[in-house]
């Protein structure tokens, strides 16, 4: 019985490394910015 591996497994790591460290760093900064904005919005939201 052969084990079939999904083609989507590990593609995110490959895509990240192919874009380089700068792209990965920019993506992480963007994610952190969005999370920070959401947290600030939730904390400052008064009805």
TrEMBL record:
This protein's GO CC annotations: plasma membrane
Subcellular location(s) per record: Cell membrane
Primary location class: membrane
InterPro entries linked to this entry: DVL, DVL/RTFL_small_peptides
Gene that produces this protein: LOC115752316
Similarity annotation: Belongs to the DVL/RTFL small polypeptides family.
Taxonomic source organism: Rhodamnia argentea
Key words of the record: Cell membrane, Developmental protein, Membrane, Transmembrane, Transmembrane helix
Gene Ontology biological-process entries: negative regulation of cell population proliferation; shoot system development
Membrane topology of this protein: Single-pass membrane protein
Cross-referenced Pfam families: DVL (PF08137)
Protein name as catalogued: Small polypeptide DEVIL 4-like
UniProt region (Disordered), positions on chain: 1-22
Biased segments, Polar residues type: 1-11
